[in-house]
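Example 4.3 (complexes with small molecules)
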Amino acid sequence: MTRHDVVVIGGSLAGAVCVRQLERLGIDAVALERDTFPRRKVCGGFLSPGGVKCLEQLGLIDDIRGAGAVDICAARIAAGGQEIDLTFERTGLGISRTILDSLVARGARVEQGCAVNNVRREWEGFRVDGITCSVVIDASGKLSRFTKRRVVDEFGVQYLRSGSSGSVLDFSFFEDGYGGTVSIEGGRSNSCFLIKKDAVRRYLDREDCLVTGPLAYEAVRSDFIAIGDALGMLDPFCGEGMQHALETGMMAAAIVARGIRRCVRYEEMKSEYEAEYNRRWAVRRRVGAMIRRLVPYRGSFAFALRVTPAWLLNRMWD
Ligand SMILES: Cc1cc2nc3c(=O)[nH]c(=O)nc-3n(C[C@H](O)[C@H](O)[C@H](O)COP(=O)(O)OP(=O)(O)OC[C@H]3O[C@@H](n4cnc5c(N)ncnc54)[C@H](O)[C@@H]3O)c2cc1C
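Answer. The structure with flavin-adenine dinucleotide bound is encoded below.
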């Protein structure tokens, strides 16, 4: 029987960063990832300035720029017949998840092609399939089987186009939902939309179309420390989902490493993590939920965007 201090379920952004940081802090940890990288994944491909800061802290930013990530300096948002231009105070990046996820997992202990089927409590720890451990972290994303979440009738669709869209993130709100296009590595553009379930079939005949869903924003209950989307997605309009995954991965690693060294019980580590999470993310989550409720009213939404000062909009991505 194999044993590790920590098993992380999922080795995409949140999981790979978490295991990377745990190893750095001297903890024996492994992430088990169902997929094999590189692989495509539905995502807008816009890494917010706050996400760029996380990659700098992780020492990964040079690799990511070296792989061709594109500097994104501004957003053009179209809603309700109006267009709003926003210049970012700090640049974000355009990059595909094919490249980003591979680079974040590279060099970290992420065992690929390993789907976790069963987790159960055992004595003072857990058994994750055939592995025993003291701590389990759920990083298995918005469709996690291990954290109960409330799903909504929305799906994500994505396709790639040849040709760059420059350094501006193009975003629009329309009948079916909303989404946008951003330049990514290799002189291409990534288009991604969040749409209602009954609109999905209209997008399926597009060449290269990838679909994900249903989406889930709210976590109802988890027995585990959950990071990234497993905790509930942030509204993609905020463009902060990847930052949220990176930041919660780092945060959980710091708390768990400290807890293991001090022989703290799992429930105490979980409570400390949740308290810290709420301190850092509760307000941003509330803003995201408010924006989501406004989205169907495109006219009012455009008005709200126009009257919101640029510095406040910039805070959203920082
Ligand atoms: C339409 C759409 C557009 C978006 N656009 C943006 C954007 O432009 N910018 C942004 O910052 N965010 C965006 N997001 C959000 C962003 O994609 C997510 O927040 C981010 O992927 C979360 O990362 P994660 O590591 O938590 O989860 P994921 O990236 O979903 O990773 C979960 C991993 O767990 C693995 N897994 C699942 N089950 C198991 C299992 N049983 N065993 C082992 N492994 C398992 C999966 O294979 C997967 O690799 C968008 C989301 C959507 C839906």
